[in-house]
Design goal:
11 strands, disordered C terminus, seven-stranded mixed sheet, Rossmann fold, alpha/beta, 265 residues
Length: 265
């Protein structure tokens, strides 16, 4: 067995992961994490027994995986390319930046990340094994491909300050603990690095309109406010914007190595 040098750490204790024939094992706490059937992609989900709602959301996205891209395209219509480029532009990537996408899904944002600056590398995690498998299949023969893992965004399998930027789109409203998820994204980004978080959301002053009521009735997530009260203290350049009145986008920079901040776990 050899210590894995691909940048993952144990999501339970942040210990060194050792490579075994069929997965990874933490040299500190002994937790084992199997590979997915599709290639040597580790399933680093923690805790192993997910909270009931988190497990339900995982199953929902597994079931939705084949239709997910079409559902987002229908919602954004002709604005999809502009939306995804907006998310990536807010990361303010430089050449050879190392990016983490939390909730990589089937990889729809990846072309825009790769084209944004020379030599960009990307790690992508998602709680849905099926989404990760589809993403891996799509990028199997591509010149640029992400390093993928199945993981819980609330227990990211990376060391502190490993990335130049972190992007999350589409799931934080359904986290078991959004505060923990945000704290984890801030923990793994370097001081000076950028974090961009986007999810379903309709501005409060529009929620009484018939179309907004219909969307919120179909998916209560559209009635959520941006989780600004959960952001840590160690940030600067905070900006909140709305896209097509159906998604909020939060962007900010990390100012120091103290990622403990103001969120309530």
């Amino acid at each position: 067995m050899n210590a894995v040098s691909i940048g993952f750490v144990c999501p339970a204790c942040k210990g060194v992961l050792m490579e075994e024939r069929d997965g990874l094992r933490c040299s500190a706490c002994g937790e084992r994490f199997p590979y997915l059937i599709t290639g040597a992609i580790p399933n680093l989900t923690f805790p192993k027994q997910l909270p009931r709602e988190t497990a339900r959301h995982r199953q929902h996205f597994d079931d939705l995986s084949e239709r997910y891209n079409n559902s987002i395209a229908r919602l954004l219509q002709s604005n999809e390319v502009v939306f995804r480029r907006t998310l990536v532009q807010l990361l303010k990537l430089k050449p050879r930046s190392h990016v983490l996408e939390v909730g990589v899904g089937t990889g729809s944002n990846l072309p825009y990340i790769f084209e944004s600056a020379e030599g960009v590398t990307v790690d992508g995690i998602d709680l849905s094994p099926r989404m990760v498998e589809l993403c891996a299949r799509h990028y199997l023969a591509q010149r640029q491909s992400p390093r993928l893992a199945v993981a819980n965004a609330e227990y990211l399998p990376y060391p502190d300050e490993a990335f130049d930027a972190v992007l999350h789109f589409g799931f934080i409203n359904e986290f078991d603990s959004p505060a923990r998820g945000i704290a984890e994204m801030v923990r793994v980004v370097k001081p000076g690095g950028r974090v961009v978080i986007s999810n379903d959301g309709i501005p409060s002053y529009l929620r009484g309109l018939p179309w907004a009521k219909a969307l919120i009735s179909a998916n209560p997530s559209f009635g959520f406010d941006p989780p600004l009260d959960l952001l840590p203290a160690s940030i600067a350049n905070l900006e909140v914007r709305w896209f097509a009145n159906v998604f909020y986008i939060i962007s900010f920079s990390k100012t120091s190595s103290d990622s403990g901040g103001g969120g309530h776990l």
